[in-house]
Amino acid sequence: MTQLIAGPMATLSHEAFRRLVEKFGGADEYYTEMINAPTLLQKGPFEKYYLMNGPAPEKIVWQLTSKEGQSMAAAVSVLAPLGGIGIDLNMGCSAPEIVHSGAGIAWMLKPQEETFEMVRGVKRAIEKSAPAFRLSVKLRLGAEDFNEEKFYDFCQGLCDCGVQRLVLHPRTQREKLSRPPRRYFVQRLAERLKPREVDVIYNGNVKDAASAAAALSECPSCAGLMISRASVQKPWIFAQVRGTLDDAGANGATDNGLQDLNGGRVDLMQTGLNYIELLQEYQPPEFFKSRMQRFFSYYCDNFTFGHYIKSKMLNAATPQEAQERFRAFFEESPADRFKVLQ
Question: pTM of the full predicted structure?
Answer without folding.
Answer: 0.94
